[in-house]
Amino acid sequence: MAPATELAKAMAHTTQDNLFRHNLIVLTVAQALGAASPPIIVSLGGLIGQQLSDNPALTTLPVSLFNLGLALGTLPSAFIMRRYGRQSAYFIGALLAILGGLVAFTGILNHSFVIFCIGTMLAGYYAANVQSYRFAATDAASDAQRAKAISWVMVGGLFAAIIGPQTVIWTRNSITDVPFAGSFLAQAGLALLAILVLTRLRSTPPMQVTASDAPMRSVGQLLRSPRFALALGSGLVTYGLMVFVMTAAPVAMVGHGHGVDHAALGIQWHVLAMFLPSLVTGRLMARFGTERITAAGLVIIGLSAIAALGGFGLMNFYLSLILLGVGWNFGFIGATAMLTASHTQAERARAQGLNDFVIFGTVALASFFSGALLQASGWEVINWMIFPAIALVLAPLVWSIGRKA
């Protein structure tokens, strides 16, 4: 009887491992397509905002509303995942991305700032789903596989770093007399391709509580948990600073005499730097610990501000954006791994949804504030503000690392 039991366990483990590997491939490809949309919106949103809005302070509003759509999309998306499974939620998100691309295209075509903003906000809901791919990769993963699973799904962003900006360069003048409109048709096309890929995702059980699960903590109890709060704070500061700077960067580059193609390439280098380290981030976390890698990411973001403050040359912008991307990778993947270790299986939908809602709600505010601050005070002030924000979370991180040493 014992050999039969052992055989059954081995077969179950093999089935789970195959499910993990299959979904990891599907999610990585879906990440490559889905993560290509934000570079399109970030590269062009502020520039189109300059063309369509009469108020300079609203220049980056399309990017801010994209981030707001992302924040607002986290909770309903988490509910759909919990009730009906991840695949259903991801299909809905991709369909809204197609609609968003078409609406944004219509806004540009009709020179309507409001319609264009609605389109970017719809695309934000899709981005909320794409952001959760990193969590979906851990559904069938063992404890030892989690950090590497998150890291490998993020590798899909390497391809997105090429696909998104190159889509801008090749399609922005594809429709005669309507600059940038073709890029948003292409964005809708990328979402359609993502749907085809997501049909290959194999279902894991809906995220529901079972009788064997420990009682779920409330939102307030989660926020009062030191481990959860530190993970949330680390992700919030890392992502918030990245968007705060990245939103303003294309407009600042063009404002200091660099071309639109240079701005798009700057975002391409930035997004490459965001995801290229994913090839080693998982191994680095396994060796040095998630808190240390997260802290290193924050320090690198500080170095990006120093590079930006060195001048307005093209290389200053590029170096700053590259360091910003590397810092985001270490900080955000580290914070994500910290988060998955801070909640129970029963709490994963609530904890993950709460985490993303808080982070991307803050990101939406950061991106809007970034545009207004750029117009009022300039590129240098934006980068000076990075240092106090880093200090707020780096201090408790270092304290936590010291306690474990």
Automatic annotation (TrEMBL):
The chain crosses the membrane at residues 24-49, 61-81, 88-105, 111-128, 149-168, 180-198, 228-255, 267-286, 293-312, 318-341, 353-375, 381-402. The keyword Transmembrane helix applies. Residues 226-405 form the Major facilitator superfamily (MFS) profile domain. This is Major facilitator transporter. The lineage of its organism: Bacteria, Pseudomonadati, Pseudomonadota, Alphaproteobacteria, Rhodobacterales. GO terms for molecular function: transmembrane transporter activity. InterPro entries: MFS, MFS_dom, MFS_trans_sf. PROSITE patterns: MFS. Keywords: Membrane, Transmembrane, Transmembrane helix. The keyword Ion transport does not apply. It comes from Ketogulonicigenium vulgare (strain WSH-001).
